[in-house]
Amino acid sequence: MARKGLLLILSSPSGAGKSTLTRMLMAWDATMRFSVSATTRAPRPGEADGREYFFRSRAEFETMVRDGQMLEHAEVFGNFYGTPRGPVEANMKDGCDTVFDIDWQGGQQIRNSALGRDVVSIFVLPPSIAELDRRLRTRAQDSDEVIAGRMAKSRDEISHWAEYDYVLVNRDLDATFEQLKTILQSERMRRDRQPGLSDFVRTLNKEFEAR
Ligand code: ADP
Ligand code: 5GP
Q1: Closest ligand to Cα 53
Q2: 84 annotated ligand-binding residue
Q3: Which positions fall inside the Guanylate kinase-like domain (predicted)?
Q4: pTM (2 decimals)?
Q5: What is the CATH number of the domain that holds 109?
Q6: Residue 184 lies in domain
Q7: Where does ligand 2 bind, in terms of residues with CB under 6 Å?
Q8: Do residues 91 and 24 make contact, with C-beta atoms less than 8 angstroms apart?
Q9: Do the domain assignments include residue 203?
Q10: How many domains would you assign to the chain?
């Protein structure tokens, strides 16, 4: 039965595990589509243009915003990040779910947009601040200075936890992933996300009448 695509927004302080969870979700369900953001930050080792992000100059980014190509955009850690609108609209038309790895500012903007009814938002918390710090260091992709900056911002990001529909504390990765799948499976079953239900019930009633 046809289903309306939903917009799954994952936010967390940097290092809590949302990119890892997003990757696991994409590997688990091939129909899910990841919203590739545009950013002015430099690529990390191993990141490819068009896969993790569209890496753009500040001027290119500003043009995208000016032309109305961004669903939302925000400044995070001194760089600009934004969600291109076109792919999200195409996914919804195709009945596919979209996953967003964006910060609280982006979450707020999409929730408050015309697409707000289609949003399911999840905030990922670390089990402790010491563990958050450890994860940022073991990821080993940022300099000490960048890590210190991200830790300093964590408190601000965490202060937005109550704006989200669900909150997951990411202690054990597999357990958190199970919880994430449970949320997604339940949200997909919501009545208003199954536009074919009225027709289906009509066929049930016709069957009654034919008895
Ligand atoms: P974010 O996208 O929120 O910045 P990442 O997904 O990059 O965070 O995770 C940061 C680091 O922590 C990575 O090295 C990742 O493998 C690790 N990590 C994620 N979840 C867990 C967990 N539950 N237990 C231990 N390490 C984790
Ligand atoms: P990173 O540089 O670690 O990839 O991401 C830094 C922060 O920017 C993360 O909190 C991430 O969720 C957020 N982010 C990534 N893409 C977007 C986006 O398109 N919009 C917004 N608002 N935040 C984003």
Answers
A1: 2
A2: no
A3: 5-185
A4: 0.94
A5: 3.40.50.300
A6: 7-196
A7: 14, 37, 41, 72, 74, 76-77, 81-83, 101-103, 105-106
A8: no
A9: no
A10: 1
